[in-house]
Amino acid sequence: MKQSEFTTNPKVSASLCAMLGEANKNPGKPPVLHFRAVGGGNPGSQDPTVSLLVETQTGDQQLSDLSSGHCQRLSDQFVSLDLPMSKVEQLIQEPHVERIQTKRKHKLVMEQALEHANGISAGERDFFESGSGVYIGIVDSGFDLSHPAFYDRNGRLRVDFLLDQVGGKQEFDRDELEQKWTLGQGNFGPGFDSNGHGTHVAAIAGGTLFGTGGWEGVAPDARFLLVKTNMFDVDEGVKWIFEKAGRSPCVVNLSLGSHYGPHDGTNAEERLYNQLSGDNQIIVVAAGNEQEKDLHVGSWYFPEQSNDYVFDVLPGNDNTDPGVVVTGWYSERDQFDLFLGTPAGQFIPFPSQGDPGRKYSNNVVSIDVSRTYYQWSQLIQCRLELSFDRATVSIDDLYGWTLRTSSKQLTAGRFDAWFHNSDFARFRQHPHLEKYRTVGIPGTGSGTITVASFTSKTQWTGDQGFAEDALSLAGRLSRFSSLGPTRDGRWKPDIAAPGHMITSALADGSRLSKAIERTLVNQRAVTIEGTSMAAPFVSGVIALMLQKATASGKNLNPVEVKDLLAKSATKDWFTGREAWTPEFGRGKVNIPEVLSLI
């Protein structure tokens, strides 16, 4: 293999350092996986851009002058910036720039197998609140605004504003949306949901009653602020929602995430959300569906212990090259030797902390390895990236890679590694293969409400008839729901809600509409599962909480919301009586009980 080096910098994310090294070596030819896993644009140009989250006190005008046209202040400390690669070095040299991180690509937190679901029925409510006077913000794949779940009893759209990040970051108000969308017609207007995920999620949180099954969201009188996201600028979407909500109480739902970070709440996006949330501004995040995805290895080591973690890269599909990013983390007080083993048996050493990163390549695979200091957690980050050319790769090239770790000096003694997301690679069976510590980012942040999923029912009906999930048990944690705690031992998830077998709104013409075993086409409903479905359930509950608190002249901040959810949570045979568990958090959400405490 050919070998080269790239410079590392402790205030620059490892992915950006690798991109800089590639761009300097091959101008106009950024590595494919970088622009798939992290934010980037126009990769074929001579000066490609990269999407960055910058932690800085530098003036906005100075950053705007560097940018390629997009520069947005998200908080006093963070700026979202699109920057030509040729100007990244100049940004690094700015004395007031503390940290530069590439935008990570988020993944929708829906179970891809589409296994089973059940409806949320309006039925008889045991509470008065319906979300009136509260905004529900949804950042997701898009929205079918011809669906009746988004209209009030007078036939008016309940969406006050929509931001389409995919369509040039265009903003639409309600009048414009009503002109371009027609109730019940299934036409494709702004923010069209080709996936179906966002439509389903939004209707769980606050959809109007629809269908003969009586499906209704938790807060059907709330107003919507919607963002069709490009999966990179989720942070900008959250900021935009809170700005549009103004002084009105607002809860934002994020049924998406990634595993590209230390899983201890110090990721830049998580620290940003700590700043954006506050009184009557609450952010809810899905815990993730990675309990059984084999994406995490972690353990406490003893001196001179060595382990080989064998993993297989998944083939991908016709539209994407196979590849994966692995990030490993250990305390700065410890010393580890790390190696990447190829399927052919060659072992490539990771560089020492502070040394340049290394790049290896041939006509099949490109390999980046680096080791940098991560000051926000006093951790050492070891980063490995594999990018394959699907035109030349074979299965033998993808299977049988090894991450070798060997402890040399230990004080803290723990090592953890995650793939950047599931469905890119899998670790093979190993005693250190962990289902715990699989809650995704930004769900490990301290400022968000993180939601696990449990099974409410085990049956559903589609156009092909009755169906049942014989492997699930009502009341038990959903078998996909990610488990806590965080890497630093904090209690995440916070709460559990129904997310298994959920029937909600179907986006016409979406990918989900082709899952005929799950759809009720005439009723415009579809049944799917995931912590993506549990999170908006809790977002709807929080909308009810904000409505009641506001009516009483109170404000609720994230800490108070968590405390109320914890005090009111249901404890049963499945959750146990402990104050917190890695499966259910503080217990199962209980709407009447939590409202009675406000």
Low-confidence stretches: 112-122
**CATH homologous superfamily classification of the largest domain:** Peptidase S8/S53 domain
Give the CATH topology of the largest domain: Rossmann fold
Coarse morphology: globular
The assembly state of the depicted protein chains is: single chain
Largest sheet features: 8 strands, mixed
Q: In the residues, how many domains can be counted?
A: 3
Rounded to an integer in angstroms, the radius of gyration calculated over CA atoms is 23 Å
GO molecular function: serine-type endopeptidase activity
Protein name: S8 family serine peptidase
Pfam families: Peptidase_S8
Keywords: Hydrolase, Protease, Serine protease
What does this structure look like?
This protein is α+β, with helices and mostly antiparallel strands. It has 3 domains: 2-30 and 40-102, 2-Layer Sandwich (Alpha-Beta Plaits); 135-290 and 440-596, Peptidase S8/S53 domain (Rossmann fold, 3-Layer(aba) Sandwich), CATH 3.40.50; 296-427, Jelly Rolls. The protein has an 8-stranded mixed β-sheet, sandwiched between helices. Strand 9 and strand 10 (170-173) form a beta hairpin. Helix 7 (234-245) runs parallel beside helix 8. The radius of gyration is 23 Å and the shape is globular.
